[in-house]
Amino acid sequence: MKGTFAKPPKIPLHFLRWFCDPDMLEDIEGDLTELFGVRAKNKPRLAKFIFWLDVLIMFRPGVIRNFEYQKLNNYDMFKNYLIAAWRNLMKNKRFSSINIFSLTLGIAACIIIFLFVKEEQAFDAFHSRKDQIYRLCEVQSFPGTNTQKVALSMPGMGPTMKEEFPEIETYARFWSFRNQPARVGDKHFMIDKVRGVDSTFLSIFDFPIIAGDPSGKMDGKEAYITRSTATKLFGSIDVVGQQFEMDDDLLSVKGVLEDVPDGSHLQFDMLCSIYLGTDDPADFDHRFGSNYLNTYFILNDGANLEDMAQRYPEYLSRMMDNEDINDFYKLFLQPLEDVHLASTDIEHDYNNHRKFNGTYIDVFVLIGVFILIIASVNFMNLTTARASTRAKEVGVRKTIGALRNQLFFQFILESTIMALIAFALAIVIDFISIPSLNILIDRDFSMIQFVSSEFIVVAFLFTLALGIITGMYPALYLSSFRPVTVLKGLKSGEKKSLFRSSLIVLQFGLAVGLIVCTLVVVQQLNYMKNKDIGYSTDHIMVVSLNYDARDNYQQIKDELLKQSSVLGVTASGQRIGNNFHQWGFKVKKDTGIVDFTPSNVVVDYDYLDVYDIKLKDGRTFSKEHAKDNGLAFIVNEAFAKEIGFEDPLGQRVGHGWYPDDSLGTIIGVTEDFNFNSLHYKVNTLSMVVHSDWGYSEMSVKLNGSNIAQGIKEVESVYNQFVSNYPFEYEFLDDHFAELYKADNQLGSIITIIAVLAIMIGGMGLFGLASISINRRIKEIGIRKVLGASSKDLMVLLSKNFGILILISFVIAVPFTWIYLAGWLEGFAYRISINPLVFLLGGVMALVVAMITISLHVIRAAYSNPVTSLRYE
Amino acid sequence: MGKNTIGEFEEILMLTVGVLYKEAYGIAIKEEIESKLKRKVSVGAMRTALKRLEKKGLLKSHLGEATAIRGGKRKRYFVVTPLGQKVLKEVMDTRKQLWESIPDVAFDLKLI
Q1: How many domains does the structure of chain A reveal?
Q2: Is the pTM for the entire model greater than 0.80?
């Protein structure tokens, strides 16, 4: 065929092809195309317009094909499905609400768990080189002390390891200078977290910079401060180049950083050069011996950690000039991700904000899956159990000509609609509950963020899938009815369903497991809260001692003791509740001097009295003995046992740096007390007085009846003697609460979830009981007529459910036991699992179950047989 | 009469189909009417009317050849059936009769 034919616009053409009677389509389309072709030669645009017009004019009766038969019918059917679904929802409001609400709770819980997990995984994730960042850690196994992993390293390690190991691209050290007073003009401020770092710090970690030099390079006269610090000091953030005084140093602002996000394990308010912390910067980079700072490395892409680990021993013994050093130290590199999620067994981990036990993440995900299973089971069970109410509908639909897959689709549609309603409700519930949850577990979840992120789409699709999956079994079941059977009146689905029973077992097994877990976790937390840790923490406030306060400690103490609400004052070099630092120690034995490394703390004379630490043997420190200042040691039982003397009192011991011929003596032995967190065993400990060293913290014991008055008194005394450092205090109880925060959070979450689980399970059982009892209502009537008592009937009706719960209990026990035993391993001081807890959990589940079904059981048992037997 | 009555537009269509004889397909009919009668014909109106006439048995149709300009679609040719001829003739006869029975004065009055 010759000639090019002009193509008419597609949209109207498709429209025409869609509506036009197929008998007429060919010639009409041909005619219109021909007309278009003629017109298009002159005015293509107008031709298009006219073509549109022609097609629209064609859309008239006579040309439009008969839709009635094909499409409109489908649409009606679809509408009918929706109507049937809606009527079904409305007809049985109780079941519908149980169905939807249990799914709602399940989805709501899952969304929260998702937020939790996402937040934990996003921790420290804002550093672009996060996969290459490693933290240097050590495993220390000193004689006479528990083997421990520590996050601290020595100042010389960073620089020399970079030289020795080609895998290391750069290093940065991070050293806490605690808080420091600063001065701008004549105004005094306190900068909370001052940290000394290497110039490479900001090139390894991506803390966003607002103003100034982004390189991070600093000399000893420069500093980076955060937005809040800048605002606090200067009242603005445009302060690059401004100067302030800190500890006699004049520092100028090199750059202003954004405030450190909560999702960073490193926290600081100000960064300055790490060399500000040392008098001898040249020596600092080669200093070995003590561990007191954190070291971070960037490794090359191809770095092999195991390969590097093989070269550490040689490196260490060379650097520290000690063949045996590798008996005490093992180095290892910890990936950045693990710093937050896998550091629970690491001690002396001071720069690890909000560290979290990563294994809990798996637990939460597992729990989320459990909850969803429990909720989905409700749905499946209730829908199939009520199959008889839909049986006639299925029969009629099949008779009229519905195919099985159409019915299948109908029921899937119904379950999907329910799931979507539940989804919407779950989001509403989360919006309402998240603010209080945030307070409870100290998080900052935001539903608004969730709803506006792509995760909402994922959650939506997930819900859709959930609706389809949970709908699958009921749909298969319902659509399998044979019309002849169901319409004849023989109700289908009356048989006991093994599948349904096993779902109940699964559901209650999970619930029992969660209840038992809750009980044990709460018990363990209570145990830790109430365990006699061997000293008193009540009403003790710890006050930092700096500058004048340190120098004037004795006067402050004397003055404080005159106050009415102060019961005692003492001081120490480190705060109780963490591990105390380990120092080298010498013990004189018959065979000679033996080295070992206990935890050490420098204390004031009356430390044991104020803290109520009990002496087992010997005496406490006293000012009357001149040698008690530096040459007398009080040790704990673990220490005494470790050195192995029958009578430790009077034995010659001393710090590692004491000459062998001028050691001190042990004057007392205390009972073991838990100076470290209860996750750890009591380590060997030695206490000593060095009154001339100066203490870093003062502990003031207040009269519990008037704390506020006490704080006021302490503050006024403090201010009397100290002008150059503000009054700062914390109560020891708060400090301990902080130590066990992660454990307590886990406790609250597990409790909430267990309550949810039993609630959802109970709702499902409630619905199921009502259905199965209604179905037996005639049987009950006949039994009553024949003389069964109400009591017999109640036993009869409850028996089945009771057996199911018993089975679920038997299955749940071993799994729960194994998990809990593993969890408790993480605590050095732990409860032993009491079998009664399992019994209690089982009984609780049984009671909840029986209460929920009792309503139906009682009603059925006391019902008048006449009502149930009247119609037959 | 009865079901064989046809409207004015239908009559014109049938006559045009007759005029075009073997070439009576959609566009030809439309153009013929437009050129001879100087009136606009919409494709839609025409096509439904043709269909109606076919259904009444006054026209019959068959598909012809396809051409490139029609996008490869075939033409539908219409032919007047014997019944159609009869109906057309009846219509013409009826009119003739009516014309003849008009008294001469009736139209002459206009001339005054």
Answers
A1: 4
A2: no
